[in-house]
Design a protein that fits this description.
The protein has helices at about 40-45, 95, 130, 140-145, 150-160, 180-185, 200-210, 225-230, 245-255, 275-280, 295-305, 310-315, 325-330, 335, and strands at about 1-10, 10-15, 30-35, 60-70, 80-85, 125, 135, 170-175, 195-200, 215-220, 235-240, 255-265, 285, 315-320, 340-345. The chain is an alpha/beta fold. It starts with a strand and ends in an 11-residue tail after the last strand. The protein contains 14 helices and 15 strands. The strands form three sheets. Strands 3, 4, 5, 6, 7, 14 and 15 form a seven-stranded mixed sheet that branches. The chain has a six-stranded parallel sheet with strand order 10-9-8-11-12-13, sandwiched between helices. The protein has a two-stranded antiparallel ribbon with strand order 1-2. Helix content is about 30%, strand content about 25%.
Length: about 350
């Protein structure tokens, strides 16, 4: 089969690799019909994730069709169309029993495209399939579903729920990339008074308005002053960091009101200064986290009934599998291309049939 293989820092290739097979009774082998690229994949290519060994197939988000299952798999069977979660869960360890699947100590957690071969391939082996794939209703398209593999659960769990967004809150989302946009969309489920999106790119601010932002502001237009004006100088109830750089994290801590919450969603590659000299007396709560994906079934239901805007708002580019390297180029140059999420898949993702 063909797959996108990490070959070392700065190098990748769409090349032939061996087909995956069942290795453990809980495995499923899935034919990939739609896959997307994550910012984390770019971090891997830059050499920021040293645990990824050269020769690893990248990717941790996909929709596909089950073609084979191990003897212990009960929840899916060959022919089922499924969403592959970015997080794998053994279901038995202490953390899985607490729904903290991202911290799984039984061989799961973030392993696809990280510690084992991932989803940017024609086929993928998924361990612990009963806990780690989700059957898809016909009413949810593959393009919508693939966005529920990572960015929507991440935004919802690590941003909205950890930030405790509630009715009447002023919520600020710094960074209107895919995660930030998903945060805006899922924050709306909790009836905040207003959602303010901050970004450097006008096109991303346009996208933020399309998914429910009440106010948008460019990062160079003094968003801190704007938030102060809206809140009588108090600051926002919830500020979500969705960029992953020191400057935006520190800006979040300046924007939050006393007693407010800062939810860090961004992936940070450099140390960040925590200004406790000004924060210690403000009763501020700061949360971090890796997504657990316990919310995926709920998000699937909300998408099925049209409560979550997904693909129409976020998918900007589409490619066939043979164009995988071109898809990476477009996604990695988002400032020039305007890319939000790219989807790589067969021309008709939803018309699938079981191979003979």
């Amino acid at each position: 089969m063909k797959a996108l293989v990490f070959q070392g820092e700065g190098r990748k290739a769409w090349q032939d690799v061996p087909d995956p097979g069942i290795e453990d009774p809980g495995d499923a082998v899935i034919r990939v019909d739609a896959v997307t690229i994550c910012g984390t994949d770019l971090h891997i290519l830059k050499g920021d994730v040293p645990e990824v060994s050269p020769g690893t197939v990248l990717g941790h988000e996909a929709v596909g069709q089950v073609v084979e299952t191990g003897g212990d798999v009960r929840n899916v069977r060959p022919g089922d169309r499924v969403l592959i979660s970015c997080i794998t869960a053994c279901g038995r360890c202490r953390f899985c029993r607490e729904n903290r699947f991202g911290q799984c100590r039984g061989g799961g957690g973030w392993i696809l495209g990280h510690l084992i071969n991932g989803t940017q391939a024609e086929y993928v082996r998924v361990p612990y399939a009963d806990m780690s794939v989700h059957p898809l209703p016909d009413s949810v398209s593959s393009e919508d579903a693939v966005l529920l593999a990572d960015i929507f659960p991440t935004a919802y769990e690590v941003g909205v729920l950890s930030g405790q967004v509630g009715p009447g809150d002023t919520v600020v989302v710094i960074g209107a990339g895919p995660i930030g946009l998903a945060t805006v969309a899922t924050a709306r489920l909790y009836s905040p008074r207003r959602v303010i999106a901050v970004d450097v790119a006008p096109s991303r601010l346009d996208a933020a308005r399309s998914v429910g932002a009440d106010v948008t502001v460019r990062a160079d237009e003094d968003p801190e002053a704007l938030v102060g004006d809206f809140t009588g100088g108090l600051g926002a109830d919830v500020v979500v960091e969705a960029v992953g750089v020191p400057e935006t994290f520190e800006q979040c801590t300046r924007m939050v009101r006393p007693g407010g919450r800062v939810a860090n969603v961004g992936v940070h590659g450099k140390p960040v200064t925590l200004h406790l000299e000004s924060l210690w007396s403000k009763d501020v709560t700061i949360t971090t986290g890796l997504v657990d994906t316990y919310s995926t079934p709920l998000l699937l239901e909300m998408t099925a009934i049209g409560r979550i805007p997904a693909a129409p708002a976020l998918v900007t580019h589409r490619f066939t599998p043979s164009q995988m390297e071109e898809a990476y180029d477009v996604f990695s140059r988002a400032a020039d291309t305007g890319a939000l999420k790219v989807v790589v898949g067969a021309p008709s993702h939803d018309a699938v049939s079981l191979p003979a």
